[in-house]
Design a protein that fits this description.
Elements lengths: L7 H19 L7 H20 L3 H23 L18 E12 L2 E12 L4 E3 L3 E6 L13 E4 L4 E2 L11 H6 L5 E5 L4 E4 L7 H19 L3 H12 L7 H9 L10 H14 L8 H21 L4 H18 L6 H15 L7 H21 L8 H28 L6 H28 L1 H28 L11 H20 L3 H26 L2 E5 L6 E6 L2 E6 L5 H7 L1 H7 L3 E4 L3 E3 L3 E4 L2 E4 L3 E5 L12 E2 L1 E4 L8 H6 L1 E2 L2 E3 L5 H10 L7 E3 H4 L2 E4 L2
Parallel strand pairs: 4-7, 11-12, 16-18, 17-19, 18-20, 20-21
Antiparallel strand pairs: 1-2, 1-5, 2-3, 2-4, 5-8, 6-7, 9-10, 9-22, 10-11, 13-14, 14-15, 15-16
Helix pairs in contact: 1-3, 1-11, 2-3, 5-6, 5-14, 6-15, 7-15, 8-9, 8-10, 8-14, 9-10, 10-11, 11-12, 12-13, 13-14, 13-16, 14-15, 16-17
Length: 696
């Protein structure tokens, strides 16, 4: 295990990453102009230089640390598109102007396409402005070629709106997700009301690789007989899972193998191993042949990186593996952790927002776990006696070590903690090797002899059938830790402090680390206990944001009672109320019948009455109104109201009105105008997100 003095880049990374984190979470509340930060940065640079010149080592350390920290703040703020003086929102007028954008990425959707675009020009009747910024464009129509491509130009007029934030508690937050890709605005273009210009004349490297990627996909579809298996091969080899079978995706998700379906560092590593095996025929010790082998390996790795889109996860893996290969051929000792943090620093210098992207965190968490824990775990068992036992234990050690830092993130973000990931890794890893090797071999063979390519495709399809059978079996018996153990911000911090203490033990062999682990574990258990205790003692109603649906959960006495107009699909459930139910640690979930009476509440058709509150869901004139009560604490308008609201308004004292998602646009505006002069607060779930209301 390398000592701390062998990884100086760790200290640099911590200070720089600390500046990025500070800028992200604190500059939202405090205005730090970019030019002011730059001035501070220059002053710190001068002070660091003077301290070094005058041999004031302590002051140099202080000023250098502040310089790195401030550099993180400056680069973060400077990278944010909204801080640019030429951002398109500062020029664009939706009534008269047109936007000219270049497509950076295109993904097919059920209604058309979702396009990530770079805005390049704002066009007015008499002039135009060169602008910058990114824009998420949703189109319900596609061009004549049936596809959009990188570099294509779109010209349109549309309303630009900020990307919406979190609509449901503890659920997916689109605004935060796209913020870290430096995209903050969206628009919708429909009915072909835009000008599409295919950029065929201009040769763009990325566009050329995109076309090659699509040609490889067509070849794989032609040589692999089963379409589902062909799309699985495309997903594993090229990272495109738009056409992937949903049942396969579900099985991979349950068993913790979703990362296999998107090209990542693991796939780049497999390509590097295959290339090393292919070029092993070059056995000469001559400098020329060694250099030739190195160049071919690195070229092959970067070719695969560009072919699969050069996404951040692929880019950092290609960069890191290239450094390892260069160091190995130079016969120099290179600290793997130094390479890891060095590659992270370089990538974050060019794109500071990567640090907050899930792919970046997952990739580096897995690699960090392997570099720190692989050898200690492998040394626990003497498996060198037989080749098979050595292979099995190597895979086991690799799987366990990669999950040490990754597993808490999976539960925190996705509430997905598969328990059988060790067993499924024995299936998935060989399957990925077979997919990449046989897939590319089949593509090359198709250029020479289609019969050989077809035979290769059938062999690959057979390997998929066997692997999928085993994965489906493990999916049927696998449990998900995320269904039983909720991790909040404080929990995640404590877990990583425990892992850091364990890592320090492997570095220094100091047994005091176990004392830290014990204390932190007690704090983690205590935090969980008080969170669950608070959740059980707080009764609450939540009306969730769900597309054209009415979904309400009543959390009473530790149980969850659900009221839904339409049954939620599994995917809708994930984005609606699943995460909040996990946060509340409910004992039981019950679908509300027409009527129910407990010692805590009474439910009759559309009225919930507790000891202190009365909630009414009003759909039409046939709904019950609680005439025994004079006060309605919350009136939920859950349908398009087909009669006058005045009798309800005149006869009852209403404390709060909630408009559900199920009310259409015209009715919503009509109700708001009708209630404009009243003093009753109105909560529109469609605009403000979930409505949360305490019942005790």
């Amino acid at each position: 295990m390398p000592r701390f003095d062998h990884i100086p880049l760790l200290r640099i990374f911590v200070l720089y990453a600390g500046g990025l984190a500070f800028a992200e979470y604190f500059c939202k509340f405090v205005d730090f102009p970019v030019h002011t930060i730059l001035q501070v940065l220059l002053i710190l640079a001068v002070l660091s230089f003077l301290s070094l010149k005058l041999e004031f080592s302590r002051w140099f350390s202080v000023f250098a640390a502040l310089f790195l920290f401030t550099s993180g703040i400056f680069l973060h703020q400077n990278f944010d598109e909204r801080n640019s003086n030429t951002h398109f929102t500062k020029f664009y007028n939706k009534e008269s102007d047109y936007l000219k954008v270049k497509i950076l990425n295109a993904v097919k959707s059920s209604n058309g396409a979702k396009l990530k675009c770079q805005v390049i020009e704002c066009i007015r009747k008499d002039t135009s402005f060169f602008v910058n910024g990114n824009l998420l464009v949703f189109s319900d129509s596609v061009p004549v070629t049936k596809q959009y491509q990188y570099g294509d130009i779109l010209i349109f007029k549309s309303k630009i709106t900020p990307i919406p934030g979190e609509n449901n508690p503890h659920a997916f937050d689109p605004a935060s997700y796209y913020h870290f890709f430096n995209i903050h605005y969206q628009c919708f273009i429909n009915g072909g009301r835009f000008y599409h210009q295919a950029n065929d004349r201009e040769f763009i490297v990325k566009r050329a690789f995109e076309l090659l990627n699509r040609n490889i996909q067509k070849t794989l579809l032609s040589i692999i007989p089963d379409k589902a298996n062909a799309n699985l091969a495309i997903s594993i080899i090229l990272g495109d899972r738009q056409e992937l079978d949903k049942e396969i995706l579900t099985s991979f998700s349950i068993t913790g193998l979703t990362h296999m379906l998107s090209v990542s560092g693991m796939h780049v590593g497999i390509v590097a191993l295959i290339l090393n095996w292919l070029f092993s025929a070059i056995k000469s010790n001559g400098v020329f042949y060694k250099l030739l082998k190195l160049v071919l390996q690195i070229a092959g790795i970067w070719f695969y990186s560009f072919l699969t889109g050069n996404e951040p996860a692929i880019l950092r893996a290609a960069f890191m593996i290239s450094l390892v290969l260069i160091g190995f051929n130079m016969k120099k000792y290179i600290s793997s952790l130094n390479i890891l943090f060095g590659s992270a620093l370089i990538l974050l210098f060019f794109n500071p927002f990567q640090m907050f992207q899930l792919s970046f965190m997952f990739s580096y968490a897995a690699m960090l776990g392997i570099f720190i824990f692989y050898k200690p775990i492998y040394d626990l068992v003497n498996a060198e006696s037989f080749v098979i036992t050595r292979y099995i234990w190597q895979i086991t050690s690799l799987s366990v070590s990669s999950q040490v830092f990754l597993y808490p993130l999976l539960i925190y973000y996705f509430h997905n903690g598969p328990t059988l990931f060790i067993l499924t890794s024995f299936i998935a890893t060989p399957m990925s090797f077979a997919a990449i090797f046989l897939g590319f071999f089949g593509v090359f063979a198709d250029l020479i002899f289609h019969g050989l390519a077809s035979l290769t495709g059938r062999l690959l399809s057979l390997s998929f059938d066997i692997s999928l059978y085993l994965i489906d079996f493990f999916a049927s018996i696998s449990a998900n830790t995320g269904d039983y153990f909720y991790i909040g911000n404080a929990d995640l911090l404590l877990i990583y402090m425990i892992i850091a203490s364990l890592s320090l033990y492997f570095f220094s062999k100091n047994k005091l680390s176990f004392t830290f682990i014990f204390v932190l574990a007690i704090l983690l258990i205590t935090n969980q206990f008080f969170r669950i205790k608070y959740a059980k003692s707080t009764d609450e109603m939540v009306i969730f944001h769900s597309k054209k649906n009415v979904v309400a959960d009543f959390y009473i006495d530790g149980n969850c009672y659900n009221f839904s107009k339409n049954k939620l699909s599994d995917q809708e459930y994930v984005f609606t109320n699943r995460n909040y139910r996990l946060y509340r640690s409910v004992n039981n979930t019950v679908d509300l019948p027409d009527s129910i009476l407990t010692e805590y509440f009474r439910w009759k058709s559309n009225i919930l009455t507790t000891k202190e509150k009365t909630i009414v869901f009003l759909k039409n004139k046939n709904d019950l109104i609680p005439f025994a009560e004079s006060k309605i604490d919350v009136l939920v308008l859950s349908e398009n109201i087909s009669y006058d609201l005045r009798p309800v308004m005149d006869n009852f004292e209403i404390a709060q009105i909630v408009l559900s998602n199920n009310i259409d646009y015209k009715q919503r505006n009509y109700i708001k105008r009708y209630l404009a002069n009243s003093e009753i607060p109105i909560w529109d779930v469609n605009e403000k997100g979930a409505f949360m209301y305490k019942l005790n």
